Amino acid sequence: MAVNFLLTLCPQAVYSMVSLLEKFETGFSGLEVEEDSIPEQFGRLEDKVGQLVDRCQALQRAKAELEAKVRHLEEVVRSKDAAEEQQVEEKMMIRSRIDHLLSRLDQVVDSD
Fold first, then answer.
1. Does residue 49 lie within any of the structural domains?
2. Would you say residue 13 lies in a domain?
3. Domains of the chain: total
4. pLDDT tens readout for residues 17-46
């Protein structure tokens, strides 16, 4: 499960780690390896895993920040849409009142 999550965020790093692990499991396919190089390779692997974890955490933080920003912007849009709708309604009401006043003025002019 964690590997699938990491694979979606950082596929190159996961493939690197899998490749190293396969080399350790197969005994490096007949290659002679000095005893002291295995701890060094594990050290590099641990460093890469640490970097991968750090990168994934940074990506998760960035994602959370972007999602919060999207939610905020969606709220701003909803607020502006509501304000625009209110302005349209006010404009229609003003137009209706002006039409009514003009109608009354026409009645006064026509009655003379």
1. yes
2. yes
3. 1
4. 666 666 665 555 555 555 568 888 888 889
Distance of CA 52 to CAs 8, 21, 35, 45, 97, Å?
12, 15, 26, 10, 67
Give burial (CB, 10 Å; 0-12/13-18/19+) of 45.
middle
Give the CA count within 13 Å in the CB-facing half-sphere of 93: 6
pTM of the entire predicted model = 0.52
Domain span at residue 16 reads: 2-85
Whether 110 is in a domain gets the answer no
Residue where the block lists tokens 């003009």: 102
Q: Which helix (H) or strand (E) holds 18?
A: helix 11-26
> Can you tell me the distance from the alpha carbon of 55 to that of 51, in angstroms, rounded to the nearest whole number?
6
pLDDT per residue as tens digits for the range 71-97: 999 999 999 999 999 999 999 999 999
